[in-house]
Amino acid sequence: MIYLSSFKLSNKKLKNPNIYPYSVFKDKYIEPFSFAPITIFYGNNGCGKSTLLNIIAGKLKIKGKESPASNNYGSENYCQRFENECAYSLGSNEYGVPFYHLPENSRYIKSEDILYEIKKIQQKAILEHGLTYDYMQDGLSLEKAQSILDHKKEQRIENIIFSQEKYSNGETSLQFFQEYLIPEALYLLDEPEVSLSPANQVALAHEINKLAHYLGCQFVIATHSPFMLGTLDAKIYNLDAKECQVTPWYQLENVRYFYDFFKKHEKEFTQ
Description:
Elements: E1 4-8, E2 33-34, E3 38-42, H1 49-60, E4 72-73, E5 76-77, H2 78-85, E6 87-90, E7 107-109, H3 111-137, H4 142-152, H5 169-180, E8 186-190, H6 198-214, E9 218-222, H7 226-231, E10 235-238, H8 253-264, H9 266-269
Parallel strand pairs: 3-9, 3-10, 7-8, 8-9
Antiparallel strand pairs: 1-2, 1-6, 4-5
């Protein structure tokens, strides 16, 4: 599904070229981005892929958008000005009927959002374990202590349920995506591979492929993970290039670095 068809960044120039976010793309020639069911913004650190996602989220007024730190010079808010100067177009459904708004469940998920959820859930688990222990110290049975604790909860149990064992950050992160990525929505994902092992990165990529091709989702993803790049059935924009052209995953610098590294050590794998 194509909910977001294209996005055009502001091409305005300022007298001061170092003002954010104008400074991020000042040396690049960028045609409007044309989106596929899965589109990737690839680039090394500092290339602007996270900034780009946040600008898109702000322009679309999508859930999870982040307000950048104030960038006022005099009375001018340059972050808001840049966002206002951008433009986008929406797509259409499989019958050619145009979309006039994005699906309600559309969301921008940043890597720090995932880490925050992991920390929040782990702290909740530790707190509940501590309260249960305190009740047992007062002479209550485990069953009675748990019953009292359950009665005290004022909010519903978290969507991601944890057993008594402490899950790793990677397992928690994968469960987070499994819980929050639902059909028929647009998702902007900023480095979703954070905390995931290579195997889980591939598992997440397969899940994204399935959601995009069978369950009516569209994804715009910022990543430089070779495992995500090589598994996702995606259109890839190389933000490291001066003209941000579409590039096959196996030609990207970060992927070639991995290839050259393992090629150099190939004999060690055949011993």
